[in-house]
Every structure is written in structure tokens, then in C-alpha cells.
């Protein structure tokens, strides 16, 4: 689960409460030593192809389109970027210099989260 909170309260961005490791295609999975999925790579990171990374001949919005992989992420977390030229409405309208991004372990987020038990970072 990933949630964000702006330091300024001018607008809000909803978090993504889905465990992306469950939806992650095998070719994007990062596995630990026990063969458990612990992360999900972007298609750009996994394949390093211009078409997935929106670079070179695919480096413009008219040439770089969402892939099947980015659509998986977009379906799960519609308020977040899923590829280079994705412009989710909440992010377009929420200009801020500082956000708090909270990463919670799998299984959290089903109910209330106690803030002292989570890892957060300000950016």
C-alpha cells in the first residue's frame, strides 16, 4: 500500500490501497530468497526498451502511449502516474513542493493505520 499526504491542505491525493505485488505480472516481479514477490518493477526498468521508457523515438506524448503493463498499475491506482506522459487529474491540480509518502507492508491498509507503526518519508 502507498499513501500520500500533502503538507499543504489545498487539495488531497488519495492513496493506493491495493497490494501491487498481487497484480504484478511474473516478468515484472522482484522475488526475495524465498521466491516471494516483494516488489513490482515498471516495464521500463524490467525491459529497458525505448517504447516502455518513453525515450528516443518514443520520447513525446504522441509517440509514448500506455502499455498493457502501465494499464495494470493505472487500474489499481488511478491517481498515480503509470508511465512518463500520464497526467492523473489529482496530480495536475495539486501543486506542492512537499508530500509525505507512506509505504506500508502487505496486509496493512485494510483498516485504520497507526501512524507510529509505519515508515514515511517527506519529499
From TrEMBL:
<feature type="disulfide bond">
    <location>
        <begin position="44"/>
        <end position="53"/>
    </location>
</feature>
<keyword id="KW-1015">Disulfide bond</keyword>
<dbReference type="Pfam" id="PF00314">
    <property type="entry name" value="Thaumatin"/>
</dbReference>
<feature type="disulfide bond">
    <location>
        <begin position="24"/>
        <end position="40"/>
    </location>
</feature>
<dbReference type="InterPro" id="IPR001938">
    <property type="entry name" value="Thaumatin"/>
</dbReference>
<dbReference type="InterPro" id="IPR037176">
    <property type="entry name" value="Osmotin/thaumatin-like_sf"/>
</dbReference>
<feature type="disulfide bond">
    <location>
        <begin position="54"/>
        <end position="64"/>
    </location>
</feature>
<feature type="disulfide bond">
    <location>
        <begin position="11"/>
        <end position="94"/>
    </location>
</feature>
<feature type="disulfide bond">
    <location>
        <begin position="16"/>
        <end position="77"/>
    </location>
</feature>
<protein>
    <recommendedName>
        <fullName>Thaumatin-like protein</fullName>
    </recommendedName>
</protein>
Amino acid at each position: 500500500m502507498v499513501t500520500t499526504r500533502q503538507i499543504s491542505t489545498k487539495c488531497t491525493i488519495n492513496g493506493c490501497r491495493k497490494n501491487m505485488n498481487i497484480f504484478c505480472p511474473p516478468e515484472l516481479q522482484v522475488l526475495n530468497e524465498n521466491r516471494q514477490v516483494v516488489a513490482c518493477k515498471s516495464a521500463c526498468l524490467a525491459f529497458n526498451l525505448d517504447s516502455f521508457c518513453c525515450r528516443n523515438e518514443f520520447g513525446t506524448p504522441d509517440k509514448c502511449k500506455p502499455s498493457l503493463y502501465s494499464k495494470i498499475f493505472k487500474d489499481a491506482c488511478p491517481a498515480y502516474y503509470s508511465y512518463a506522459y500520464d497526467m492523473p487529474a489529482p496530480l495536475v491540480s495539486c501543486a506542492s513542493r512537499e508530500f509525505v509518502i507512506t509505504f506500508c507492508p502487505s496486509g496493512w491498509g485494510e483498516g485504520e493505520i497507526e501512524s507510529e507503526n509505519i515508515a514515511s518519508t517527506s519529499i
